[in-house]
């Protein structure tokens, strides 16, 4: 007897979905309510559970296929081989001789402020494998970062509770280590997977080894940033970014070509979870907020002169360079006090006004745009702001920002000028209601007191949520920023 697995009701007006991921393959044992696959619609992700226990039969709709409501996805053969418990919870064989008697739960580590879930992307170990303490077991992906989960104890991986593709909560159990001991010495690291550094055997992160193998990169070509020189996944990415791309044909599978010549010049690469999240959040921002952009321009003469006059003394005293970002941060904090709705957010039918400024500073990284947050920027000095921007910018480029460091921002500054952008309309970073776009400083002829003079000018753009920020407030904000930058003494006088 077999049971059909069909597409569930997807919601009002939603008529089709795409099969994103199969968590089971034909022949796998499944339990009732165990997740079989994940469907994606234009609005939500839907997980499809098993309606009966048994063995996975035929998969009718493969990954990437578009299916309608009630379409047949797969079949489950009931009876012989039926699972009484989820297959992902398969027990390991008897513990190895000499291992301890205790079992230790492997839990989801702290993911960061307001982050409530993650997706299990890769298991580096399988049930029955021997693991060392601190050896990487699996990798989780959240909206912004990848988190590698180390073994809390040495022993045998006796149970995997959350299979690859499973979405888990912030305090969920991932696996169980049986015969656990508190010392990694019970499970020595093999020479093939470790490198001696300073007399110590160092186990590279499994995700890093996998990335090096896929890219054909030698371990000697990568500098490890982890403990004791351990190579992490981000270290491989940085090494690849610094190495010219090989001329060999890409390993990814091209889509159906128009011509044979086009096929050899195309490459299909699956979007990272970070890039998918960026795409989703930007589109959600456009769909949710009544976004509008207003523009102005600022004469940077006074700021540039002030910076030139004091930059050496500033760096000598504070140990950090004086840049333009501290002036813009100060100017925005000054303007936000006068126009508090730009620093507010909508929560249902309420407007939440923030009596503080947690300033987001957008930073480009090899993996995509991230926005580290400088907390209480309104109460910081120029030197404190410059130090915070430099430190968080470096951590962003190195891929070492924690989730907590990218949460809670109330306003954002994005500087496209560093890439040469002359004019753009930045997209809101929800749930924030305002974002300032900086641009390239360019000499332009300006009429000053009836005379045409050359001045270093920058276009400013403020994108704002028109649901709570009126045009008057948006224009006033930009004018105040302009005034503060064109006469920086106003910041000292609080004018």
Protein architecture, described:
This protein is of the alpha+beta class and about 500 residues long. It has four domains: about 1-85, Beta Barrel (OB fold (Dihydrolipoamide Acetyltransferase, E2P)); about 90-190, OB fold (Dihydrolipoamide Acetyltransferase, E2P) (Beta Barrel), CATH 2.40.50; about 195-270, Irregular (Dihydrolipoamide Transferase), CATH 4.10.320.10; about 275-495, Chloramphenicol acetyltransferase-like domain (Chloramphenicol Acetyltransferase), CATH 3.30.559.10. It has helices at about 205-215, 235-240, 260-265, 275-290, 300-320, 325-340, 380-395, 470-485, 490-495, and strands at about 1-5, 15-20, 30, 35-40, 45-50, 55-60, 65-70, 70-75, 100-105, 115-125, 130, 135-140, 145-150, 155-160, 165-170, 175-180, 195, 200-205, 290-300, 345, 350, 360, 365, 370, 375, 410-415, 435-440, 440-450, 450-465. The strands form eight sheets. Strands 19, 22, 25, 26, 27, 28 and 29 form a seven-stranded mixed β-sheet that branches. A four-stranded antiparallel β-sheet has the order 1-8-6-3, with no helix packed on it. It has a four-stranded antiparallel β-sheet with strand order 5-4-2-7, with no helix packed on it. A hairpin with a 2-residue loop joins strand 23 (about 365) and strand 24. Helix 1 (about 205-215) runs parallel beside helix 2 (about 235-240), helix 6 (about 325-340) crosses helix 7 and helix 6 packs across helix 8 (about 470-485). It is globular. Its cofactor is (R)-lipoate. It comes from Planktotalea frisia. Belongs to the 2-oxoacid dehydrogenase family.
